[in-house]
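Note to self: keep these together.
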Amino acid sequence: MKNIEISLLSLEEANNLKVLKKYGHRMIGTDFVLLTGAEGYSLNGTMELKDPDEVDSDMNSEVISSYYTKSINKDRSINFINHIGYQSTIGAIARYLAIRPTIKITPKLENVLAHKHLNKEGVYEVDFGAYPQEVVGYYDAIRLENAFKSGNITKTGKTYTIDKEMYSNSSLGFTPLDLDEYQIGDKKYIRIKMSSFYDGRFFSLSNGQCYRNDKFIWVEVSPVTWLIDDESQMLIAKKGLLSGIAYKPTSTKFEDSFMATYLNRYMAKNLFQGTFADRRSSIIEEKTIDERLTLLEEKLRKLDPNNQYFKEEIALLGDYVKGIREDYQEEVKAPQKHL
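Structure:
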């Protein structure tokens, strides 16, 4: 089965999609975007830096971030949409813009789209997948940190991959850092050491608290909301999800960039783990049929009939079983070597 492919908006799409003309081109950035290096702006200008003891009275105020497109110029500079919603260009080494992913609507998403709803701008949107987005409140952070230090918090086995390097690193390389997902009750979180654009300076996040780099922060994992464009059959992330990733174009084709590789090797897996679109390459890559059968058995034991994507997961495993059967038949047909 071909898994869902993640991309970015092209400059043409950003300018012409009906859903963006209606919703607007400015993009809200999550706290996680700021924590991984994006520059943020308030609705009225550059984000104000705070006194460390000051709590923002405007709780849950939204921050606007610039975001990449997949349109690359001949000199390999990158076109992006800035915080006021206009086109601009930036060099390939910049890491402080946000990733706003898109996915194509396929028949496999019909069950997801059945849960769409109309937002206040009159645009249909739908929740699909999950990702770290907003920081937790002050007292929740203390509770989580105490649970972490005392070992009274559970790892779910899921991870979210970011670049270990600072946002300001001019290198085009990539050092993956897997952030473990933790769970208490029915809520899930990640713990991240900040690498913000505001290095050494305090700034406030959505909970009104002030932060600066070199501090561990707890971020809640929550459903990702996508805007639906029926005409182009595309889902566009409502918010920016991540920053700090080097674009690294090797030509003027987006498919040849590291950004494209990152989106589909790491972000796709992170976004859709636990859904019907979950990538299962770790199973498929096993060398022997016996190993693959063992992993299949383990996967079957973990299936939850109450999961809304239970039928899709069964279908995926059916495809996997078919592959094992075909491999086995090829082995049987293969001529045996005489000693």
